[in-house]
Amino acid sequence: MRCDLHTHSFHSDGILAPAEVVAHAREGGVELLALTDHDVTDGLDEARAACAAAGIRFLPGVEISTTWEGMTIHIVGLGIDPAAIILQAGLKGLRDVRHERAQEIDRRLAKHRIPGTLAGASALARGAIVSRTHFARYLHSQGYVTSIGQAFRRYLGRGCPGHTPTVWVPIEEAIAWIQGAGGVAVLAHPARYKLSSGKRRKLLAEFKAGGGHAIEVVSGAHSADDARRFAQFAQEFGLEASLGSDYHGPLEAGGSWARPGSLAPLPPECTPVWRRWAA
Ligand code: AMP
Ligand code: MN
Ligand code: MN
Ligand code: MN
To answer: I need a surface site. Which of 8, 101, 157, 233 has the fewest CB within 10 A?
Structure first.
């Protein structure tokens, strides 16, 4: 079954409406789709309806921001009930953290003689959550950088003038919210975290011990070699495997995202996390 279990709409930092994400997934031949916006579930009703109309199976999802040993780690929840109070209360807390952080990024960039970035980023977010991606898009629109990647490298990433250390929630807590909402927890794009091999093992072991179910083996953020390595980690740690493009829209200044349905299949030794929904 061709699936894509990690995508974003403009309810977080994607560019498209949920129904447009579904249309692109359909063009890519996707048969099972999850919408997984950062820290918010507002796009799920529209995506569910669009999937029903397009004949695509739909999984409600979310991508939760967590902090582990001072590092931001993303945990995708799949098959969640968005009405679950434990999940919504948790996500609301993260959006409050985001709000505080956005104000601090604005202050830090203003000190660096770049004023008005919160207003600019908020306008681009159109009332949805403000992420660093919106700051990056604003910096690009004003000519401070030539690409979104450069905005992260020069202004928003670690060691940069706008970098604002943020404490999200512990991984176990995000997993508890996901499980409380009837979903399964998936470690997003594990190759993207810059970790020593010892720490990577520690992360995988703690994720598993905390109730984590699967890791993304094939991801828009992974190379073919990453997929092979993480297929082995999945086996070693008794974790199932997921696949997701991390699609944020068709084009981004200075780059583009993997299109839904465009990724290689999982390596054959993997157990697909979507088995439980594909039947
Ligand atoms: P936030 O959750 O607000 O900290 O924003 C994180 C988001 O920024 C990620 O979900 C990515 O979509 C995007 N992002 C992070 N690093 C980069 C990068 N180097 N280039 C482009 N986008 C990035
Ligand atoms: Mn994002
Ligand atoms: Mn992510
Ligand atoms: Mn994502």
So the answer is: 157
Q: How far apart are CA 55 and CA 87, in angstroms?
A: 28
* Other beta carbons within 10 Å of 8: 26
Write out the two tokens for 4: 């894509």
Q: Give the contacts of 259 (CB within 8 A, at least 6 positions apart).
A: 24, 28, 245, 247, 250
| In 125-221, beta strands by DSSP E | 184-187, 214-219
Residue 63, H or E segment:
strand 57-68
Model pTM score: 0.98
- The owner of tokens 């945990």 is 75
Testing ligand 1's pocket by substitution, the residue of 98, 133, 140 carrying the most ligand atoms inside 8 A of its CB is: 133
Q: Among 202, 191, 185, 279, which residue's Cα sits nearest to residue 240?
A: 185
Cα(279)–Cα(265) distance, rounded to whole angstroms?
Answer: 18
| pLDDT tens-digit map of 178-205 | 999 999 999 999 999 999 999 999 999 9
Ligand 1: centre distance to CA 125 (Å): 14
- Output Rg (C-alpha) for the chain, integer angstroms: 18
DSSP 8-state class, residue 113: T
